């Protein structure tokens, strides 16, 4: 069965600083990988996805993520954080078949200091 | 474009009362549908998923149930709520390659 680990529960960065959120996955085949963002009291919004091909994927709101098969990682990055990026971020891995279910990490809460 | 609706947005129910949460999707056909629960400070727990009308798969045994009476309607129910059922309930849909899209959620407080 697949699993996702987000080792950082909380991260605080200053506005304008760079950001990297870590995600490690466990899956037997080539995974489908996703990053979602959730603002308080809201649903999840898809930031970006990796299915195949180029290992550096671009998403919305200036985010990007890099798939590294050798490290089983899919870290999320942003060069310059804005105060509005404060939210909770979830990494997820998907499996084909069986309803195309996703397995989510426990999330990383991002705080942005002004 | 596709949209997903959930209602109610918030709900306060006493222990032992019944529950019905509804989720509908517009702008697509034959979607996969999912119910998740998110407890405070925790990740998302998949409760049920459905690949078609009347087809429900349960991921976690509990006192909740799900039904899919129509192609784009997914209902989460309980006959008797427990305190532990409190949480944020999210509905999601997908078509291809696992990409799921989430509704706005329902905040359930069991008192």
Tell me about this structure.
The complex is a heterodimer of chains A (114) and B (111). Helices cover 0% and strands 52% of the residues of chain A. In chain A, β10 and β11 form a beta hairpin. Chain A is mainly β. Chain B is an all-beta fold. In chain B, the strands form 2 sheets. In chain B, strands 2, 4, 5, 6, 9, 10 and 11 form a 7-stranded mixed beta sheet that branches. The interface between A and B is medium-sized, with 23 and 25 residues.
Largest sheet of chain B: 7 strands, mixed
Mean pLDDT of chain A: 92
How many distinct helices of chain B?
Answer: 0
Q: What summary fits the major beta sheet of chain A?
A: 6 strands, mixed
User: Could you say which structural class the secondary elements and strand pairing of chain B correspond to?
Assistant: mainly beta
Could you tell me the number of beta strands of chain B?
A: 11
Largest interface between protein chains, with number of residues from each side = A-B, 23 and 25 residues
Order of helices and strands of chain A: EEEEEEEEEEEE
Low-confidence stretches of chain B: none
Distance between the termini of chain B: 38 Å
- Mass-distribution shape of chain A: globular
């Amino acid at each position: 069965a697949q699993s996702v680990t987000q080792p950082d529960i909380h991260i605080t960065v200053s506005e304008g600083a760079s950001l990297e959120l870590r995600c490690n996955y466990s899956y037997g085949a080539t995974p489908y990988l996703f990053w979602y963002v959730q603002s308080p009291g809201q649903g999840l919004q898809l930031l970006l996805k990796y299915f195949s091909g180029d290992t550096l994927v671009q998403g919305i709101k200036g985010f990007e993520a890099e798939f590294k098969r050798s490290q089983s990682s899919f870290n999320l990055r942003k060069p310059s954080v804005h105060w509005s990026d404060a939210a909770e971020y979830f990494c997820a891995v998907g499996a084909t078949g069986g309803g195309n279910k996703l397995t989510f990490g426990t999330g990383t809460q991002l705080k942005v200091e002004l | 474009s596709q949209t997903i609706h959930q209602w109610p947005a918030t709900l306060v129910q006493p222990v032992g009362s019944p529950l019905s949460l509804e989720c509908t999707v517009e702008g697509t056909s034959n979607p996969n549908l999912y119910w998740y629960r998110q407890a405070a400070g925790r990740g998302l727990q998949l409760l049920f998923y459905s690949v078609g009308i009347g087809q429900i798969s349960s991921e976690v045994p509990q006192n909740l149930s799900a039904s899919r009476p129509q192609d784009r309607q997914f209902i989460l129910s309980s006959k008797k709520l427990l305190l532990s059922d409190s949480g944020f309930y999210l509905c999601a849909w997908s078509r291809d390659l696992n990409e799921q899209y989430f509704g706005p959620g329902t905040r359930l407080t069991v008192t």
